[in-house]
Amino acid sequence: MALRMWASSTANALKLSSSVSKSQLSPSLDASPQGLKYANSHEWVKHEGSVATIGITDHAQDHLGEVVFVELPEENGSVSKEKSFGAVESVKATSEILSPISGEVIEVNKKLTEAPGLINSSPYEDGWMIKVKPSNPSELESLMGSKEYTKFCEEEDAAH
Amino acid sequence: MSVKRVGLPLMNVVKLRGTPILQQLLLEERLLRSSSANWCIVNDGTNLPNIVMGLSGKPCELVELEPVIRDQVPVIKRFTGGGTVIVDENTLFVSLICNRNDVPDVQPYPRSVMAWSGSLYSQVFNGIGDFQLRENDYVFGDRKFGGNAQSITRNRWIHHTSFLWDYSESNMAYLKLPSRVPQYRLERDHTDFVCRMKDYIERAGFIEKTIKAVGTQFMLKELSFDEIDDSCREHLETTRLLTLDELKETLAKTTQNESIAQAV
């Protein structure tokens, strides 16, 4: 059973309305950060040595709306490429999160228990979700780079 | 067959009546996760009063635990997001499970799916009672009669709605006022915030119009409950009935915490 990380909407939770645009966030979040790899399901991976950190992108958080709850896996569990490892709840909806790579979960972001809004306010930093020891680092090669992902998001939005 | 219907994606329509809500939700979760078809599930009332919370719901915050335990009202946690409802034979349910590729104009995100559903029900309630989608609720004017919830997976999503055909004040008393309420509610108490759908539309007529509206976007095929393929059950199942022991334990902890808070 996945670790249930309950969120409480505290007065300090960042209240981002659906009208908050990327330009109102930190300038570093305006474009997809360099140095990360991206899945077409809108998760990002930061690979540093033997550890890969995973979260959802600014594009994803913006489209999801205010995140009020996060469900993440247990530490020492495993994740598989393109398989669900958890869910976020926002605006009456639960949305599954897919892992961009396979591996062992070595750390889970416990701050998201009390502050799920970190996913909205800091999707690439404080809003990270899990850290994984990749079991097949070559899986990273099939992911998109920053420019490719930015273009992917633009095309996806333009199509709707 | 009219020309406009050629090329429409298929949607299976299942009409239920009085099906227990737990059974309905388990079916929906299975169809979302294990089926590749589109589904429209209509349940014309459930059999017994049940409390249904969203995925992140906490009983101590949402439910009056003492009377719920005393009266043994079942409490279910469902797989979709959203708030808490108490449902019974006067609650109508419509659930739409879609492949994202079959609804290509709808992005698989909550607001996009909600807008699509609002548009669909605008056809159903055309000319009736100033219907609109308001924040995430279906309202007549500023009074809620339909609550929505969703679950979104990579390639599919479900949007399901509970409609207040009628309701009993005594059942509503099992629920607490949630901490998170829509802005348009303002300070209104429950009786001023909700309305009864039966005051606006005929029950059978609503179901018929809903299916007809769905039929403007899909080719419909009606199936009975028994015709649903249930061979694939290897999916994550998160919908569950909370046990009486869980509820009692929650009540005990809540009472203890309150005592400590008062002592301090």
How does this model look, in words?
The complex is a heterodimer of chains A (160) and B (264). Chain A has helices at 58-64, 111-114, 118-121, 146-158; strands at residues 3-5, 37-38, 43-48, 51-56, 67-72, 78-79, 84-90, 93-98, 103-108, 130-134. The radius of gyration of chain A is 15 Å and the shape is globular. Chain A has a domain at 37-136: RNA polymerase II/Efflux pump adaptor protein, barrel-sandwich hybrid domain (OB fold (Dihydrolipoamide Acetyltransferase, E2P), Beta Barrel), CATH 2.40.50.100. Chain A starts with a strand and ends with a helix. Chain A has 4 helices and 10 strands. With 264 residues, chain B is of the alpha+beta class. Chain B is globular and about 70 Å long.
Strand content of chain B: 25-35%
- State the end-to-end distance of chain B: 73 Å
Number of discrete helical segments of chain B: 8
Q: Give the integer mean of the pLDDT values of chain A.
A: 85
CATH topology of chain B: BirA Bifunctional Protein, domain 2
Biggest sheet of chain B, in brief? Answer: 8 strands, mixed
Strand content range of chain A: 25-35%
**Name of the CATH first level of the domain at 37-136 in chain A:** Mainly Beta
Derived structural class of chain A: alpha+beta
Biggest sheet strand line-up of chain B: 7-8-9-10-6-2-1-11
Question: In sequence order, what are the helices and strands of chain B, one letter per element?
Answer: EHEEHHEEEHEEEEHHHEEH
DSSP helix fraction of chain A: 10-25%
